[in-house]
Amino acid sequence: MRTYLDCIPCFVRQALEAARMVSADAAIHERVLREVLRWSSEMDMSQPPPAMGQRIHRLIRALTGVNDPYRPARERQNRMAGDLLAEFQAEIAAASDPLEMAVRLAIAGNVIDMGVHGDVKKSAVRSSLRQAMREPLAGDLQEFRRASRKARVILYLADNAGEIVFDRLLIEQLGPARVTLAVRGGPVINDATRADARAAGLPGSLEIVDNGSDAPGTLLPDCSDEFRRRFAAADMVVAKGQGNYETLSRERRGIHFLFKAKCPMIAEHAGVALGAHVLLCPQAGGG
Amino acid sequence: MRTYLDCIPCFVRQALEAARMVSADAAIHERVLREVLRWSSEMDMSQPPPAMGQRIHRLIRALTGVNDPYRPARERQNRMAGDLLAEFQAEIAAASDPLEMAVRLAIAGNVIDMGVHGDVKKSAVRSSLRQAMREPLAGDLQEFRRASRKARVILYLADNAGEIVFDRLLIEQLGPARVTLAVRGGPVINDATRADARAAGLPGSLEIVDNGSDAPGTLLPDCSDEFRRRFAAADMVVAKGQGNYETLSRERRGIHFLFKAKCPMIAEHAGVALGAHVLLCPQAGGG
Fold first, then answer.
1. Residue A16 and residue B8: Cβ atoms within 8 Å?
2. How wide is the angle at C-alpha B95 spanned by C-alphas B94 and B96, nearest 5°?
3. How many helices and strands, by DSSP H and E, does chain A display?
């Protein structure tokens, strides 16, 4: 997905919010804002939006000297999601279709996102999860089921901390032995890293890799050779979250995208309603 | 009032919205957006925000070749306000304190603003006016009454089209013979011009001047000598709307500001709640 004109005011607002969240120094806020304005004025709009997110957060880290400013937020989100885990594990155990329930909860977990609306509360996450158990799912669950049954190697691209606890529920349904979980190669916003994967209490047998990139998405040219090899070789790629959709929607290989459409431009691009819980299967993806 | 960092994302968003309202050409939208980003990246933050508004709307007019793109919107707003006039004239006639009622309605008319939230509907204006008749007024009405009784020459700075119909109600209370109404020197957004003053059915005896500037506010250095002379010589200056407050809040001379605080930064600067109906008297102004 390319960058739309509507993405730009949102970059500018998010850059200011992020600078303020990370630093109390007004000179740093102004510096970040002015740089992002200058970059945006010259931006290559064919790039996906997370390319700008990567630049913004690199700048904030460089100016503040803080390598991982969102670590406390991620740890809080992991704990919050961990507190909800047993409740929703029981729902899956009791469900007539545990895979469907796990897909729904993994998508709903995508409400834990600091990129769009700042931080999120446990009560909001629980109510989002409860709602997701009932509401329509925009996508072809049967296709997802067929593809997941056939696949020997599933590459699962995580999105955010906290959310990764609910990814665990879906990975348990897919069968951890054939799943490789990929996290970001370095800290960016609240995107899940290796430390968050460990905090999520994932099965010990699960292989965890990182993509070698600090973009809030999967910018393949910026990822490691090793990651790209796995990406090409996997029978099935499950990509969680808006950032992965934005960066991978134009890829030729089949990808199953699971996300909550929180941004109007992404919803429009994916052809779904704003706020929809989306499962995009390969034939419906692309573009 | 200087420009705050928070004003910048709002400029960028408003510039894109305005370009889209005026032109269907995506190349123009992108050009406007990129120019505004570049200007903002180098902006002198000591300037009041309407200085950027002036540049943005000059650019849109230059790129589209349309000298007054908001004229249909202003004419619609004048008609809409005109439809409501008799109803609220009757309220003033029946009020125990007609001046207070006219002040309240003039402030409430400031809801007709395209700068902040796009266009506005008649039902919203009526309900804003009805609400303004009851709700607390943030300001010292008695000081306004005293100053207006004493003044021989009152300069009344209009803000928007449509709104100017409700300014008429207050001008009728102040006494048209000693009031000079000032409008913008050229079209910018839906700010009131001479044509809008005529459309408002103002008393024939009322003197109307323009300020010689196409800024959406009163940037004194950009105004005509004649206007600045009148500004200095008036016994009382009544300034309507956020744009006039933003551009004149640092002036030394006493000014009575009447506006609805629709922007969080302006509300903070004026020390009032967001959404408040504000009457700022000279001793409370400045800064």
1. yes
2. 120
3. 13, 7
